[in-house]
Amino acid sequence: MNHWLTAPILIPLIGGILQAFMGYAPIALRRTLAIATTVLMLVAAIVLLVLADDGSYRLYAFGNWQPPFGIVLVLDRLAALMLVMTAVLALFCHIYAIGGTDESSRQFHGLFLFQLLGLNIAFLTGDLFNLFVAFEVLLIASYGLLMHGEGTSRTVPGLHYVVLNLAGSAVFLIAVGMIYSVTGTLNMADLAVKIPQVAEENLPLVKAGGMMLLVVFGLKAAILPLCFWLPGAYSNATAPVAALFAVMTKVGIYAIIRVFTLIFGNQAGELSGLGMDWLFPLALITLTMGVIGALGAASLRKLIAWQVIISVGTLLAAISFGTVAGTSAALFYLLNTTWVAGGLFLVADLVDGQRGSAQDKIVTAPRIANRTFLSVLFLMGAVAAVGLPPLSGFFAKLLILKSAVTESDVAWLWSVLLIGSFFTLIAYSRAGSIVFWRNVEGHIEEPQKLTPSLSVSASALISLSIVMVILAGPISRYAEDTAAQLHDTSAYTEILSKPMVGEEK
Amino acid sequence: MELAFAVVIGALTASGVYLMLRARTFPVVVGLTMLSYGVNLFLFSSGRLATGGQPIIGSAETYSDPLPQALVLTAIVIGFAMTAFVVVLSLRSLADNNDDHVNGRVPEQDSTVQKQEQEGANT
């Protein structure tokens, strides 16, 4: 039992409840408390990262119930990595939000913190049904956040997003029910033990359940046939919300990594590698679709929303190999793409504020105010996202390319990823040169002021890609250890035999 | 018993899916509700359908699994909250767009067809 594990859940929970009661408190007080909560959460996440780096599994069993009977929180390297990634992104989004986005609704901070609560539960939980509950917590907060802001443009994309996710939840429940009806357990470690022992006649049920789980996680992660909700929803959300949502698709990817390496991994007998032969082609088609969307995007926000889909395709292609090298490359790329996409959403919003009525549309307009600062940020973000040297995206893509082993995989992955990157580069250079260079006569009335909280948070997120290059050694070492830990599932199932009662520590 | 149960779940799910594919928000909301009913019943049945069982092993001939009921309870609560939210959201969409079409407005092709139908009905 390690009580630190509850910290990333309790901190945003308590902070969020406080915010819910403080809707009419002075805004300075609400902002201070909200930022303090996010900072505390980041500290807790870093503590857990240091704890998890010794490679052992830490367990928190609610009510001291011996797993698999109660709900457990499990901390391993992957969970800690996701927690830190989310906390860093959330902190900068939050700093950006106090630059003015939070003024239009009294409950913005509460919703923001509840969103983080849901994300943290999803990363820490060791129980399939609890994962469903975590998804619902983060989804209902995200519905509120997505609708946040002025104007009516968000209603329709918001409605689509909500209905689609409700249908997804229904499929998730059916899958959970199917798996439970055969195995009699929902604890992930216990499932990993029970799945190989499933009787012959029950195999199709578990198989169907597993594939339906893949569909649900694919919907969250926005894999191709299920990705068309994303550009509309993300490009209409306010900037800090869109930037935070960069991590939402990664929850789906986290769930795919967790469930399909642990439960349907190499040791799962007849069901090992379930769905992975579907995942590779789908990932490559998703990547292609993202590139086509990026080339045709009419505004910077749409372009970055399609960039999120490109990164999903790239990540899943590497994950579908099911090897240590593939997973560790994907984890390195995951960090890079989440922070950079979040930063780019913030930069697009800054550009929007400096261009008057042209907003962030990719059209010629009068010369944008603060051009040098914003164009350098956009350039850095684009270079990191496309994967050009010297920024971190280059190393990440290189690792992914190197992780392909068999000849056909190499041929497909290299050609799609490299040609895709080339066309993404064209999309970014087209957008950047039109927005920043091609000017018409005229001037912009009252450009938005670049206050410190706006410019610092946007540039900090983008410059994390430089930090990642400097720290590439330790980060890739951590990613490799994480992947090795993930693929050695026997250690995870040992948490079942850890005694809960009478342990003093 | 099993057959009746399966038919009910199937009918609920099929009508739910059909209604969700409609173009107006009201049928979509009703469809989501029916789908969640179907799912709840399905989840309930994952502990096997049996009467007179005891939830404690060894206390009676047949053992009845209490966990699916806990799962269904959670799913009902969550589904209820989500339905309330989606109702409010559809009303908001109706107020914002003066139309209860799921896309906020009827696509042009459809609206011309409708107009022609109306004109046909008028003449």
Automatic annotation (TrEMBL), chain A:
The gene is mrpD. Residues 126-424 form the NADH:quinone oxidoreductase/Mrp antiporter transmembrane domain. It comes from the Bacteria. This is Multisubunit potassium/proton antiporter, PhaD subunit. PANTHER family: NA(+)_H(+) ANTIPORTER SUBUNIT D1 (PTHR42703:SF1), NADH DEHYDROGENASE (PTHR42703). Belongs to the CPA3 antiporters (TC 2.A.63) subunit D family. It is a multi-pass membrane protein. One of its GO terms (biological process) is ATP synthesis coupled electron transport. It is found in: Cell membrane; Membrane. GO terms for molecular function: NADH dehydrogenase (ubiquinone) activity. Keywords: Cell membrane, Membrane, Transmembrane, Transmembrane helix. The chain crosses the membrane at residues 6-25, 32-51, 71-96, 108-125, 131-149, 161-182, 211-230, 242-266, 278-297, 304-324, 330-351, 372-391, 411-429, 450-472.
TrEMBL record, chain B:
It is a multi-pass membrane protein. Keywords: Cell membrane, Membrane, Transmembrane, Transmembrane helix. GO terms for cellular component: plasma membrane. It comes from the Bacteria. Residues 109-123 have a biased composition (Polar residues). The chain crosses the membrane at residues 26-49, 70-91. Residues 97-123 are annotated as: Disordered. InterPro entries: CPA3_antiporter_subunitC (IPR050601), NUOK/Mnh_C1-like (IPR039428). It is found in: Cell membrane. Belongs to the CPA3 antiporters (TC 2.A.63) subunit C family. This is Multisubunit potassium/proton antiporter, PhaC subunit.
